[in-house]
Design brief:
This protein is of the alpha+beta class and 249 residues long. It has 7 helices and 11 strands. Helix 3 crosses helix 7.
């Protein structure tokens, strides 16, 4: 009986050992994605109604632009003026309702605006092209000293960053002068509230002055949604031509 058990045990172990084979080589090959690959009709039929629904929403005409708003300009651009102005306009009543305070300035980054607004129909898709990122609006409290840092950053960068609520002049030595906030001269000891994006608030584009904010408030409002909501409530999309930054010759 013991011999039978030993034989059966040996047979089982031997069988398991033969089945356990280590894979010592893995072979593969590249499959290039080209026009010759056939489309999966099953996947396409599943995706199609969702795509059509999204396209319908994105292509809905919300407003009209009588003139193209582009990103051309040395110190400011039509797109920069438009985006900063409407961000300030849309954020102010929300901040006033939440904190009973006023926003003085909007400051964003030129690179954050990814497209122009072409003359003609304006849709939700236009907003996604202009602002494809999921950036949210934040309001920060900055002292006048930090606003001076902001201006010096603006001058050193030599980029037309979107700016609203503030004006200043760059003298022949590249120093700022005649700095006004909402029409009043800059007070270095005053606290000003600035609306910007969460990306810049966290030091994006080396805007480190935002990290010195004494207060910060999340408006829980995406910048892109601000644009869409503005489109919905305005029949025409027009950029202000007001001068924010002057450069002395």
């Amino acid at each position: 009986m013991k011999q039978i058990v030993l034989i059966l045990t040996f047979f089982i172990l031997f069988s398991c050992a033969e089945k356990k084979q280590l894979v010592s080589k893995i072979e593969g090959k590249n499959i290039e994605i080209t026009d010759t690959l056939s489309e999966s009709t099953e996947i396409e039929s599943f995706v199609k109604p969702y795509r059509e629904h999204i396209d319908s929403d994105l292509n809905l005409v919300l407003s009209h632009a009588p003139k193209t708003l582009d990103k051309n300009g040395e110190w400011q651009t039509p797109m920069g003026n438009f985006i900063s102005d409407i961000t300030l306009e849309m954020a102010t009543p929300i901040f006033k309702l939440k904190e009973n305070k006023n926003i003085a300035i909007c400051f964003l980054n030129h690179g954050g605006i990814r497209s122009i607004i072409s003359a003609g129909d304006v849709t939700a898709r236009t907003a996604y092209e202009v602002m494809p990122f999921e950036n949210s609006a934040f309001v920060v409290g900055l002292k006048g000293e930090q606003l001076l840092e902001m201006i010096q950053y603006f001058i050193s960068e030599k980029k037309p960053h979107p700016l609203s609520g503030m004006t200043f002049t760059i003298d022949k030595d590249n120093n700022p002068k005649n700095i006004f906030i909402q029409g009043k001269k800059l007070d270095l000891k005053e606290v000003y509230y600035v609306v910007t994006s969460d990306y810049l608030l966290n030091g994006g584009d080396n805007m480190l002055f935002f990290k010195k904010a004494i207060d910060k408030y999340d408006l829980d409002y995406k910048l892109r949604n601000m644009i869409i909501d503005y489109f919905k409530t305005h029949n025409e999309i027009i950029a202000s031509q007001s001068i924010r930054v002057k450069k002395e010759n």
